[in-house]
Each structure stands twice: as structure tokens, then as C-alpha cells.
Design a protein that fits this description.
The chain contains 17 helices and 25 strands. By secondary structure, it is α/β, with parallel strands linked by helices. Helix 5 runs parallel beside helix 8, helix 8 runs antiparallel to helix 13 and helix 10 crosses helix 14.
Length: 677
């Protein structure tokens, strides 16, 4: 792929932060000092105006942009660019007082009170009109400024509304989807059960948010509709911005695996993907390196939505946050490691929430570059400054991308469907964790993996991993069959192909829609194990793998047995199989088996696909960014031990050291190796 620089004017990687000067307009001394310290910390961009509506427009039609224009001017004169936000993430009080329609309605039919944020109705014409007005004014005053390089749409979209406007839009959405034929909807949702049949679309109400959701089709379509409606609103902002400032790219900040929206749908409308990364580092539940592996997975999810360009880490905390169960500060050296991981995974930015801690309100103790102390000699400031220096040294990596040859399938609506299953266990489905564990297994082999929706193009990949692909979107089974027949290596697991897009079970055996022929197995039953239960997968080579949570009882339909169950009444029956199909192989893992015991299969898949893998010590994370003949290999030591990696050749552009054979990494150290491609 060619280099694709997100911000050519920056000529390197972005080092930025959320900046809230409107909170300090009565302290010009602080605002002046901010810019001096930003330059010292090597900050080259800030996000402005995310929650500034009540300062822009304190009463309807009364606008004040002087402070914003002055701030953008001062930043630009000092080499600092602006990402300008639309302020629709939180409304001024006058708007709610005069136009209560704009306020969100809860599932009990009660209007929510003014306050907090993101509690507005996305369907409200009045709300959209008022947002449009303020955007026009913003663009008029600042849209042509050379210091403004991007629009940031609202902030962390989320939530549901149950007002009459949203209910009517939901009914219209369903009528359109089911060709205005209520009988099609009744069949798709199996509504004869419990006499749920409707006679018209106007009878359909959203599922009760806080109650037992018994109509699975209704529940799933409400979640899809919420994404559709939110996306429709976001598009209205984007459309206006593109008309007013056609040269500026747009983004919005996603939130990890936020379960309320399907980000793959919303990503289509954005020029750049950005997200807010706040892992619970140094926790009691897992080793530090595992938390970092999980965070790498989330980076891959975001990166893969637009794999031809870098993404943005829009928010992170240089020290701590204020909303986790335990708000622990990052240990010395971890900020640089954590930030370098984002760049290694394909981000061209390291950005923070926030520049300066606010004196009061909800986020007064949320971490920032500048503490309430107000000095630039703190540990946090020094680590931010040190990172800024390091980002300059590796500036040539900007615009390069990850060229993954393996992919993991992840669908938000598949996740929703799994969560709604009335069966298995409510406590151990863990779809996200299972997907992450497969990603980590390949990460430990040095194999880069994209995380993509099941309806995306498979042509660029040699390996596809499909964990718990419970719900099959239309055409996915045929595309998986084509992928394998052409030489692809496919691995799926228990709970594959049980239901269609409407959550109707396939007939004729699981995995359905013809996949039982592709994998050469049929699942007759699935056993849910208690935490006290145990079983084993006994492999033909004599190795064993522990089994927990779920085990399918499989009937062979042409596949080769790689492992059998060790215990219970299904002892000796297939647990893991492989089926040669055309030029490729389809592997089926019928139980939740420890991934370490599947390593041999992963290596076999890589060899068949012609994908290079590496011998990497546990705790070392490896990534490679590339463009044309440029090639940058990142090695991160996610442990407190000194570790070494063999067969590394090139120049570490962070310190100028030439490596020819063995790379030694100190505690939390990163190396960026430039080598010929």
C-alpha cells in the first residue's frame, strides 16, 4: 500500500489533547501558560469545543466566538493545529427549557432531565435544526482557518430514546425492511410463539429496556435501529460540514466495544476512524502483558474498519482516569509503552483527555497533562514530553499501515444475538473475550490480524478465524466456502451457524446454511459446563488441551479428527476436526479449548497460507507498519523483565542503535526497527 498521511501539514505523528480554554476565560495567565507548556511537551494539535455550546450560545441566537477565534489563532501562531468539534454532545439549558422535544425519553415514557450529556433525541427535528444552526455559525467563524485541520463530530455517541418520534421512526424502519408486509415480520420473528403476532407495524413498541426481553427478533432489530438512527443523525452533521468546509476530513470518537452501536455501520461515513483507549492497567485480574494484548485487539478492531489508512487514538490518559472501579495511575514508563503500542498498531496520533484538569465537576480528578499543581516539572508532564520527543524520532512512520494477511470475524449484531440466547450460561458466553483470546494467540506468533465484519471482503487474507459465528449474515456461508475452496485456511468454533439474520434456527443440523458440508461435521448437542466441570481434548499427537464452559457433541460428515474428548459420555468423540475442501482447509474447534493447545493448528494454518510467523518471548508484542519499500518493525516489552528477541536486523530509530541478531529490551522498553523490505 501507499503512504496515506492523515495530516500532511503536521509532517509526522500527531501528539495532541482535548483542550478546554472556555473553562479558564477568567484566567488569561493560565491560557498564556498553557501554550508555552504545550510547546515544551511537543504538543502539535488540540481538540477544541467538544462541550462548548453553552459558551458559544448562552441564549438562543446570541453567539460568542471571539474566544475561540483568538484561541485558534494563538495556537496556530505557535505551531499547534486544531481539531474542531461540533458541540452536539451536550446541550445548553435554554434549549431544553424551550424545546423539551430535544430531550431523551426513557423506557418508562418519562422525559429525562437536563444535565449529564448525550441525553438528546436523535430523531428530534428541533434538535437537528439547532445543531445545524450552531454548526453553520462555527464554520462561518473558523471553518476557513488554516489552523483547523479536522472536524470532530459530537463526542462518544450512545444511548437510546423511547419518545413517540423514535417509536414512529422504528415502526417506519421495520415497515421498510420487511417490504411493508407485517406477515414477513411475524414469520421472521416467529411471532406465533406466545401469541406475539402483530396485525400492523403501528402496534410494535420497542423492547422494554429494564425487563425480560422475550422477543429476540424485536430486541435485535431495536439495536440495529438504534445504530441506524444514530448513524442517520451523524450523517446529517457530516453532510452539512462537507457542504460548508469540503476540504476538511471528519471523524468521531468510538469507545472500544461499546455494545449500544454497531461501529462497522457508522465507520462507513467517516474519513478517519478514531477511538478512546482507557484500559484498566495494573489490575488484579490478569498480567499486565495480557491487558496490553487486549488493548492491541481493540486497536486492531478500529484500524480494520479502514485498513488502507492509519487511525487515531483520540483519547487516552497520561496518568489515570476517574470513572473505573479502581482508578490506578500508570506506573513510570508505561505511558510511553502504551502510546507506542497505539502507533505500532497503526495509529498516527497519540492524544489525551485532557490537557489541564478542571477545577470542579464530574471530571475534576480525571488525569491530564497538567495537574491542579499547574507545573511542568511533574512526573506525568516529563513522561508526556519524553513521548513527544520519541514521536518526532519516528515521524517517518506516519502514513504507513498494517498489511495483515489474517483476519478475525467480529460482528456487533452477532454479539447482540449471542447475549440474547435463552440457553447456555448467562455468565460464560464471553464473546468479546473469546475473540480477543484468538487474536492474542496469533499476536504471540508475530502474525498481524485484522478484525473485520463477516460481510467484508476476504480476498486479502490467507487465514480467517471465526469464533462463535452464531448468526450468519446473508451470503457469508457461500463466501466462506469460496474462501476455503480457493486455498484459504478457515477455523471456526462451537456455536457456529445456529441462526439466520433474524435469529431463526437453521434446520438440517448446525453449522447451518451449508457450512456443515464445508467443515465436514454436524453438531448434535452443545453441553454447558459448570465451573466445577472439566474435560480434555486429547490430540492425535499425544498433547492435551483443557476444556471449559462449552462442548459440542459432533457427528463426522467427512472431516478428519484432530482431537477427541477425554471424559464424560461423549468421551472418544470428535472435539477438533479438519476438513480439506478444494485447495484449502476448514478447521472446527467444537469446544472452548485452551488456545495454547491449538498452537500447532495455528502454525499449520500459517504454513499452508504462506504467512510468516516469528519466535517471540511471552510478553513481547510485535507489529509491522509498511508502505512501498518502507518497513518499520515495532517490538514492545510488556513486562518488568529484561527480554531479548532473536533474528532482528536493522536500525532502532528511537536510539540509532544498529541491531544485527539479538534485540535486548529493558522493562517497558520499545524498539522501532527500520529495515529494508
Amino acid at each position: 500500500m501507499k503512504k496515506k498521511s492523515l495530516f500532511p501539514v503536521i509532517n509526522g505523528l500527531m501528539h495532541g489533547c482535548d483542550y478546554n480554554p472556555e473553562q479558564w476565560l477568567d484566567r488569561p495567565d493560565i491560557l498564556e501558560e498553557d501554550i508555552k507548556m504545550m510547546k515544551k511537551a511537543n504538543i502539535n494539535a488540540v481538540s477544541l469545543g467538544i462541550f462548548s455550546w453553552s459558551v458559544y450560545e448562552p441564549s438562543e441566537g446570541e453567539y460568542h466566538f471571539e474566544w475561540l477565534e483568538k484561541t485558534i489563532d494563538n495556537l496556530y501562531k505557535n505551531g499547534i493545529y486544531t481539531i474542531l468539534a461540533t458541540p452536539s454532545g451536550a446541550r445548553p439549558a435554554w434549549l431544553d427549557e424551550k424545546y423539551p422535544e430535544a430531550m431523551r425519553t426513557d423506557c418508562y415514557g418519562q422525559k429525562e432531565h437536563h444535565g449529564f450529556r448525550h441525553n438528546h433525541c436523535m430523531s428530534s427535528p428541533v434538535y437537528r435544526e439547532k445543531v445545524s444552526n450552531i454548526i453553520r455559525k462555527l464554520a462561518e467563524h473558523t471553518g476557513g482557518h488554516p489552523g483547523v485541520i479536522m472536524w470532530h463530530i459530537s463526542n462518544e455517541f450512545g444511548g437510546e430514546c423511547y419518545c413517540p418520534l423514535c417509536v414512529k421512526r422504528f415502526q417506519d424502519y421495520l415497515a421498510d425492511k420487511f417490504d411493508n408486509d407485517i406477515s414477513k415480520l411475524n414469520h421472521a420473528w416467529w411471532n406465533t410463539f406466545w401469541s406475539h403476532n402483530y396485525s400492523s407495524f403501528c402496534q410494535i413498541e420497542p423492547p422494554f429496556a429494564n425487563g425480560e426481553r422475550t422477543n429476540l427478533g424485536l430486541d435485535l432489530e431495536w439495536k440495529r435501529f438504534t445504530t441506524w438512527n444514530m448513524n442517520d443523525y451523524m450523517k446529517s452533521e457530516i453532510k452539512l460540514l462537507k457542504e460548508l468546509t469540503p476540504g476538511l476530513p471528519v471523524t468521531t470518537n468510538f469507545m472500544q466495544f461499546y455494545s449500544g452501536l454497531d461501529y462497522n455501520v457508522m465507520a462507513e461515513e467517516l474519513d478517519v476512524i478514531s477511538w478512546d483507549s482507557y484500559p484498566a492497567l495494573h489490575n488484579d485480574s490478569e498480567p499486565f502483558y495480557k491487558t496490553m494484548e487486549n488493548n492491541s485487539f481493540y486497536h486492531a478492531v478500529m484500524r480494520s474498519m479502514k485498513r488502507d489508512r492509519p487511525f487515531m487514538m483520540m483519547e487516552s490518559a497520561p496518568g489515570l482516569v476517574n470513572w473505573q472501579e479502581y482508578n490506578k495511575v500508570k506506573r513510570p514508563g508505561v505511558h510511553k509503552l502504551f502510546s507506542m503500542q497505539a502507533v505500532a498498531c497503526g495509529s498516527d496520533t497519540v492524544q489525551y483527555f485532557q490537557w489541564r484538569k478542571g477545577r470542579g465537576s464530574f471530571e475534576q480528578y480525571h488525569g491530564a497533562v497538567i495537574d491542579h499543581l499547574g507545573k511542568d516539572d511533574t512526573r506525568i508532564f516529563e513522561e508526556v514530553k519524553d513521548l513527544g520527543d520519541a514521536l518526532k524520532k519516528i515521524s517517518k512512520t506516519a502514513g504507513t499501515v498494517i498489511e495483515a494477511k489474517a483476519a478475525l470475524l467480529y460482528d456487533w449484531d452477532n454479539k447482540w444475538a449471542i447475549e440474547d440466547i435463552k440457553g447456555l450460561s448467562n455468565n460464560t458466553k464471553n464473546y468479546d473475550a473469546v475473540c480477543c483470546s484468538f487474536y492474542s494467540a496469533f499476536l504471540r506468533l508475530g502474525i498481524e490480524m485484522d478484525v473485520i465484519a463477516s460481510d467484508r471482503d476476504f480476498a486479502n487474507y490467507g487465514i480467517i478465524i471465526a469464533p462463535m459465528l452464531y448468526m450468519l449474515r446473508p451470503g457469508v456461508a457461500d463466501r466462506l466456502e469460496s474462501f476455503v475452496s480457493k486455498g484459504g485456511q478457515l477455523l471456526a468454533t462451537y456455536l457456529t451457524g445456529y441462526v439466520d439474520i433474524n435469529q431463526l434456527c437453521y434446520l438440517g443440523g448446525f453449522p447451518g446454511d451449508g457450512l456443515n458440508k464445508l467443515f465436514g461435521v454436524i453438531s448434535e448437542e452443545i453441553d454447558t459446563l459448570y465451573p466445577s466441570d472439566s474435560n480434555l481434548a486429547k490430540f492425535k499427537d499425544g498433547s492435551e488441551g483443557s476444556i471449559k464452559d462449552y462442548a459440542e457433541i459432533l457427528r463426522l460428515n467427512g472431516a478428519e479428527v484432530l482431537a477427541e474428548y477425554g471424559y464424560d459420555f461423549y468421551k472418544g468423540t470428535p472435539a477438533v476436526t479438519a476438513h480439506s475442501y478444494g485447495k484449502g482447509t476448514a478447521y472446527y474447534v467444537g469446544a472452548r479449548i485452551c488456545n495454547d493447545s491449538l498452537r500447532r493448528i495455528f502454525l499449520e494454518m500459517a504454513e499452508k497460507a504462506g504467512i510468516e510467523y516469528k519466535k517471540i518471548p511471552l510478553g513481547i508484542e510485535y507489529h509491522k507498519r509498511t508502505a512501498g519499500r518502507e518497513n518499520y518493525e515495532f517490538y514492545l516489552n510488556n513486562t518488568e523483565d529484561v527480554l531479548s528477541v532473536e533474528n532482528v536486523t536493522g536500525t532502532n530509530i528511537l536510539n540509532g542503535q544498529n541491531i544485527d541478531g539479538v534485540l535486548v529490551l529493558e522493562k517497558y522498553e520499545t524498539a522501532v526497527i527500520e529495515a529494508s523490505k
